[in-house]
Write a structure and sequence with these properties.
267 residues; 15% strand; alpha/beta; globular; disordered N terminus
């Protein structure tokens, strides 16, 4: 899967672990460690953190994918050295911070999943908002077979997708789900043909980018948090989000466009 033709490169370092291509309102972010099945190094994690902490102002949606036939095989174990418990905790919390930047930074993120979507790679995928799987995708959490516990957010994000019972079985057995099963279980929202993921991601990202920016922001910020709340608190938070979205210029433009039978032009 290559970046779209005609797009302007923002990161001109061909050897960078994260290749960034800006195409209008869409940023294509490609894991670029194909020789390691895009295993996540600390340098790659830092690039993700820096991008999502301060994305370019004109970018409305990000598409995350991997080069070389794999999304990501997870944590680069070759970088792991003996650490004291406090150091392991800080490293894990650093992953949590990056995943939170992806999920709650305010930028809708579409991921294209193929080949290995394993361990930390699956944790990253679970922090994205729209997930597209190609037939080669394989979903797995093998950490238990390597003598370690997950540390990048799997127990929360993947647990909410699968449920605690199925996540427990997945972690204990190290089983691998194929693309069709992963789609059925909710690890992916769309299942497409070989090599069709980027085109589908562009289609969906273009649709999302055309939404009112405030509504996209509220969906990202509110829905997951409402899921954490009790019923009454969740309904109140929904009302607050509705009030914010329905009283601004975007709401007036959306209503005007509907009445004039045209596409809205949100700022």
């Amino acid at each position: 899967m290559n970046a779209p033709n005609g797009a302007a490169m923002r990161d001109d370092d061909a050897a960078a672990p994260l290749r960034i291509t800006i195409d209008g309102p869409i940023a294509f972010l490609a894991f670029n460690r194909p020789e390691k099945r895009n295993a996540i190094s600390d340098a790659l994690l830092d690039r993700l953190k820096r991008f999502f902490a301060a994305p370019p102002e004109a970018v409305r949606v990000a598409v995350l994918h991997g080069l070389g036939g794999h999304f990501s095989a997870g944590l680069d174990l070759s970088e792991q050295v003996a650490r004291e418990p406090a150091e392991v905790m800080r490293h894990s919390r650093g992953w949590h911070q990056v995943m939170d930047e992806i999920q709650f930074g305010g930028l809708p993120v579409v991921s294209v999943l193929n080949g290995a979507v394993i361990g930390g790679g699956l944790e990253i995928a679970a922090s994205t908002h729209v997930r597209i799987a190609e037939p080669s995708a394989r979903f797995q959490l093998p950490e238990g077979k390597r003598g370690i516990f997950v540390g990048g957010g799997a127990t929360v994000r993947i647990g909410r997708i699968l449920g605690a019972d199925r996540l427990t079985e997945m972690m204990l057995t190290g089983r691998s789900y194929d693309a069709e099963t992963g789609h059925r279980l909710g690890l992916a929202h769309y299942l497409v043909g070989d090599g069709e993921g980027i085109a589908k991601a562009r289609e969906l990202a273009t649709e999302i980018a055309a939404n009112a920016p405030l509504v996209n922001y509220l969906v990202i910020q509110a829905v997951s948090r409402i899921d954490d709340m009790g019923r009454g608190d969740g309904l109140f938070a929904e009302s607050l989000s509705a009030a914010l979205s329905q009283t601004g210029t975007d709401a007036r433009e959306g209503l005007r466009a509907f009445l004039e039978k045209r596409d809205p032009r949100f700022r």
